[in-house]
Amino acid sequence: MAQRGFLGRRRPPRDDLPPGQYDTGEDFPVLTAEVTPVIDPERWSMSVDGLVANPTTWSWAELHALPESTYAGPIHCVTTWSKFGTTFAGVSLDLLLDAAGPLPSATHVLATSTTGYTTNLPLDHLRGGQAWVAWTYDGKPLPRDHGGPARLLVPHLYFWKSAKWVTRLTLLDHDQPGFWEVNGYLNLGDPWREQRYTGD
Ligand SMILES: Nc1nc2c(c(=O)[nH]1)N[C@H]1C(S)=C(S)[C@@H](COP(=O)(O)O)O[C@H]1N2
Ligand SMILES: [Mo]
Question: What is the number of structural domains in the chain?
Answer without folding.
Answer: 1
